[in-house]
Amino acid sequence: MVSMKIQFLGSGVAIPQPGRVQSGIAVETENDNLLLFDCGAGVLQRLYESGRDPRDVDAIILTHLHLDHVADVLPLLKSRWLCEKRDCVIYGPEGTRDWLDGLIGLYPYLQGRFDLSVIELKPGRQIALDGNDCRLSCAPGMHSVPSLGYRLEDGGKIMVYSGDTQPCDSLMELAQGSDVLIHECSFPPGFEVDFHTTPDMLEPYLGKLDTGKLYLTHLYPQMQGREQESLEYMRSRFKGEVHIASDLLEIDP
């Protein structure tokens, strides 16, 4: 067995930009299960480029149902079916089952092809993923649609992933005591926006945030050329490590 391994598959957004596809994070657990947090456009190809097979995914965990976080879910399921693997477990917020049923319903040739277990999660619920030592819990974010942030505890390591949100108490509480917090940072300091995050919007939380490493993801094109400025702003206010995610970057919690 190995400890938790994390790899960014997609660190971008719905607007195309060099080197970044849409949101997706692969996490290998201590028991070698592969969890896929979000699955936006381009993530299926990045999964292949990471040396993995679509059939390797043991569960898909969705933060919310915006297209740049779910666009490759059906292509991934179809790829697995073509490789003779029909089953998959999908976790997500309320509405995930209806969304997926409606999506598959658009393609008659795919109906009846999959054996899916769809589990809708509510904030505060904790579930065991591959044994009692691997636990997943969630908290609500602040986004334009229902969105969940996740806390994964496995093999003595803790990862928290914010999904899309503006900074909020519920997710910062979820992140306390974690080894790594992966938080969206869509825009540079001074950019006015709701339901997303900028470094200065995170500032009120940084002094009391108890996490070892902070990785910024979900970067809009407006962040290009201002990455170092954003890092310096946050490093001057946060006692742990701060990094900007890139596609296919591998990290250890």
From TrEMBL:
Signal peptide: none
One Pfam family hit: Lactamase_B_2
Keywords: Hydrolase
Domain of life: Archaea
Record InterPro entries: AtsA-like_MBL-fold, Metallo-B-lactamas, RibonucZ/Hydroxyglut_hydro
Any one GO MF annotation of this record: 3'-tRNA processing endoribonuclease activity
Record's keyword annotation contains Hydrolase: yes
Metallo-beta-lactamase domain location: 21-218
Name of the molecule in the record: MBL fold metallo-hydrolase
Organism: Methanohalophilus halophilus
